[in-house]
Amino acid sequence: MDLTAPGLENEFIRLAPLDEQFREDLRSSDATEHMWSSLPAIQRGAGFDAYYDHVLRQAKMGELYAFAILDPSDKNRFVGVTALANPNKMHRRVRLGYTWLEPHLRGRGINAAIQKLLIERALDWGAKRIEWFVEEPNTRAIRAIEALGAIREGVLRQYEKFADGEWVDVVVLSMVRDEAKEALRRLGLIMAESEA
Q1: Is the separation of the CB atoms in 103 and 86 below 8 Å?
Q2: Assign residue 121 a region: left if phi > 0, alpha if psi is -120 to 50, beta otherwise?
Q3: 133: pLDDT strictly greater than 90
Q4: The whole model's pTM is what?
Q5: Of 14, 32, 15, nearest to 23 (Cα)?
Q6: Pick from 147, 195, 137: which is nearest to 173 by CA?
Q7: Which of 19, 31, 110, 195 could form a disulfide with 100 if both were Cys (CB 3.0 to 4.6 A apart)?
Q8: Are residues 169 and 156 in contact, defined by beta-carbon separation less than 8 angstroms?
Q9: What is the average per-residue pLDDT within 115-131?
Q10: pLDDT digit string (tens) for 74-109?
Q11: Tally of CB atoms within 10 A around 145
């Protein structure tokens, strides 16, 4: 199955491949502030449009598939972004990340719904390893990923230069296929509790 095939949706959320139609939605969101403190620097340009164009180019090259997060309970309104990155079909691994969600939707089971969709898609694609690279100061995200059953493998020191010029250490977390199947069960429970 293709990583960007249709069908990335559940009762909480819908994911649509990020393309030109979402440029202004993202530009006007609070995600733009988040970008400068938590995204790697790119080679050319430092503005929003340079980043957006870079993401679209990466999709064409098969390096990163970004998705608009849409709220089906609110006329499919744009509420965030997420991505599947660095897919390697030979070694059957893919990275999840670059997730930003509108603050008022956090803590309501929406992130669980997003992670469930991405993990399911990774498994359907054939992944044996699913990984997350998270900047070390983002302890909230690290704890949330560990709560899914991901294993913290270590820290890559001064691994990336972020858009704001800071060099950051990155925590590597992962789960293998059987762990990912268990994570899906946990995520289903989290989503069920959110509906109650």
Answers
A1: no
A2: alpha
A3: yes
A4: 0.91
A5: 32
A6: 147
A7: 31
A8: yes
A9: 97
A10: 999 999 999 999 999 999 999 999 999 998 888 778
A11: 24
Name the β-bridge partners of 69: 15, 80
Asked if residue 23 lies in contact with residue 82, where contact means CB atoms within 8 angstroms, the answer is no
CA distances to 40, 98, 114, 150, 157 from 79, rounded to whole Å, are 22, 14, 12, 26, 32
Q: How many CB atoms lie within 10 A of CB 73?
A: 9
| 3-state percent breakdown (helix, strand, coil) of the chain, nearest 5 | 40, 35, 25
Residue 11 C-alpha from the chain's centroid? 19
The label of the residue with tokens 């990336």 reads: 160
Q: In sequence order, what E strands does the chain have?
A: 14-17, 64-71, 77-88, 93-101, 129-135, 151-161, 167-176
The DSSP symbol for 21 reads G
